[in-house]
Design brief:
Elements lengths: L23 H21 L3 H4 L2 H7 L8 H15 L3 H12 L5 E2 L9 E2 L5
Antiparallel strand pairs: 1-2
Helix pairs in contact: 4-5
Length: 121
């Protein structure tokens, strides 16, 4: 596992902390990788791929230029949930639009009340 606060470092297996941070070179490579992924995403949603969203754009009252990669991915999730009955896609959409459901955590000690998490909006 690599990247993110509190994640295990890829080489030494130690948690990232204030004192255990990636080198400047590793950070630079990570930034370059992120930029490359953004460029690839931008290329995917141009040309013929973008034209395939024209009908959806018209239906939503958007210009085709307003449909970026993120919007295209959301539309694909909706399509998977509705047309294919994909429950994972449905859960992702519901979590994104309505927030995750409230969850109670059961405690072993009966003197402690369960912790209730609130829906994030």
């Amino acid at each position: 596992m690599s990247g993110g606060k509190g994640k295990i470092g890829p080489k030494d297996g130690k948690l990232f902390s204030k004192d255990n941070q990636p080198t400047g070179e590793a950070k630079s490579l990570g930034k370059k990788k992120k930029a490359l992924i953004k460029d690839i995403c931008a290329q995917i949603i141009t040309g013929d791929a973008k034209e395939s969203f024209q009908g959806v754009a018209d239906y939503l009252g958007l210009s085709i230029e307003e449909i970026d990669f993120e919007t295209a991915m959301h539309l694909k999730q909706l399509e998977k949930a509705i047309k294919k009955g994909d429950t994972t896609a449905y859960n992702a959409i519901m979590d994104r639009t309505k927030g995750k459901p409230v969850q109670a955590i059961q405690m072993e000690d009966m003197n402690i009340k369960p912790i209730i998490t609130k829906r994030v909006k």
